[in-house]
Amino acid sequence: MGFRIVTINREFGSGGRTIGKQVAQRMGVTCYDEELVTQIAKESGMSQSFIQSFSEEASATSSFLFTLNNWANNALSDQIYITQRKIIQDLAEQGPCVIVGRCADYFLKERTDCLNVFIHANMEFKKDRIVRLYGEKADTPEKRILDKDKRRIAYYKYYTDRNWGQAANYHLCLDSSVLGVDRCTDLIYSLVEG
Amino acid sequence: MGFRIVTINREFGSGGRTIGKQVAQRMGVTCYDEELVTQIAKESGMSQSFIQSFSEEASATSSFLFTLNNWANNALSDQIYITQRKIIQDLAEQGPCVIVGRCADYFLKERTDCLNVFIHANMEFKKDRIVRLYGEKADTPEKRILDKDKRRIAYYKYYTDRNWGQAANYHLCLDSSVLGVDRCTDLIYSLVEG
Q1: How confident is the model at residue A77, as a pLDDT?
Q2: How far apart are CA A7 and CA A20, in angstroms?
Q3: Cβ of A179 and B171 within 8 Å?
Q4: Per-residue confidence at B184, pLDDT binned at 50, 70, 90?
Q5: How many CB pairs under 8 A join A and B?
Q6: Residues A63, A52: contact at Cβ < 8 Å?
Q7: Largest CA distance in chain A
Q8: How is residue B166 annotated by DSSP?
Q9: Whose CB among A105, A141, B7, B107 lies 3.0–4.6 Å from A127's, allowing a Cys bridge?
Q10: Which of A166, A180, A187 has the CB atom closest to B167's CB atom?
């Protein structure tokens, strides 16, 4: 069987980005995550921070409704989305890679060489992870996780009309808090190898 | 790591039952599916057909609203549910096994030795499978699939207040139409082995 491309959607704090990097390392290919913002900036001529304010990772310092309003009423938001789609589709054409977030599963849904993965975890695991690894403040980690994911859920729904985290949208969904981050990497890589 | 018990929820036609039986065979344990109805009948003193009319597999010959009404307004339905929970929890205590459907993931959610799996597939795969393997009429397989799953979704929601097919409710979700039935069995068994 085997897959050339892996897309990873993930709950904040689930270790999905780490899993993506580990899988890419095992495959000997690039893992596109923050790198995508740089590419979108380059292609669109907009600044990185401006692009981030319109993305699924829109800063938590702006309110959720402000962020949603940004997507819904701004032609620039659509332009960024279209540039993002083009870059992701071009990357997939160029060769094997791993892409984290940014609706990549949706953009590449017609490809048969693409494995779409969703990583989730229980709240305790995610809270511990963001405090320990990302240095988030220990007093409000749950709020921070829910807020981050709320934006991802809304962004995915707004642009794809799909429900984020619904098993039917992915080929493989893994609970990293029960299976472990390294075991998730092993499982995904075993499918890539075929 | 390793798991002693595997629960499998599945879309109708996805091959989830076959996967359950294959995993059980590899583990050298029993796969409980229809066998559960026999046990519930024995324990409750009710007939098998009567129990089935109140279950997630309620006959498609009765209307969906009639079935839903059966669950919501009948003390017998709750009694069957409670007997079912007791039997499944007892089975898990007795030793390793595989249990297909019947909210087993929910009944065993406190156990750390239980792997909860959800199997889904695209419509073409499911249609082909139920016509080829179960001899369903070839002219309305999609309606039959949607009707079956509608009952499972409603039953699961009514009794567990959870959304069926939401990745967060399972440790592992697999698309059997993309990964293949045998590969799904391999993946689950590799986790059971630890």
Answers
A1: 77
A2: 8
A3: yes
A4: very high
A5: 64
A6: no
A7: 46
A8: B
A9: A141
A10: A166
CATH number at residue A128: 3.40.50.300
- Give the closest of A167, A172, A179 to B166, CB-based: A167
Length of chain B equals 194
- Nearest Cα residue in chain B from A176: B171
Chain centre to alpha carbon of residue A134: 17
Instruction: Compute the distance between CA of residue B113 and CA of residue B67 in angstroms, rounded to an integer.
Output: 34
- From the list B1, B167, B179, the residue facing A120 with the nearest CB is B167
Distance CA A16, CA A129 (A): 11
Confirm whether B21 is domain-assigned.
yes
pLDDT tens digit sequence for A54-80: 666 554 455 656 566 665 556 777 788
Smallest Cα distance from B177 to chain A, Å? 9
Reported as a single tens digit per residue, the pLDDT across B98-155 is 999 888 999 999 999 999 999 999 999 999 999 988 777 767 889 888 888 888 888 8
Asked if A119 and A52 touch (Cβ cutoff 8 Å), the reply is: no
Using CB atoms, pick whichever of A165, A167, A183 lies closest to residue B120: A167
pLDDT band at B60 (very low <50, low <70, confident <90, very high): very low
Is the ipTM, as predicted for this complex, more than 0.85? yes
Task: Quote the CA–CA distance of B189 and B173 in Å, as a whole number.
Answer: 14
Q: Which of B7, B11, B175, B186 to mutate to test the interface with A (most CBs of A within 10 A)?
A: B175
* Domain carrying residue B118: 5-187
Fill in the DSSP letter of residue B66: H
Alpha-carbon gap, residue A189 to A174, rounded angstroms = 13
Structural domains in chain A (count): 1
CB contact under 8 Å between B1 and A183, yes or no, is yes
Least confident of A4-13, A126-135, B123-132: A126-135
Q: Is residue B193 part of a domain?
A: no
In the structure encoding, which two tokens stand for residue A3, read together?
A: 């897959």
Q: List beta partners, residue A172.
A: A117, B174
Nearest to A32 by CA among A79, A101, A113: A101
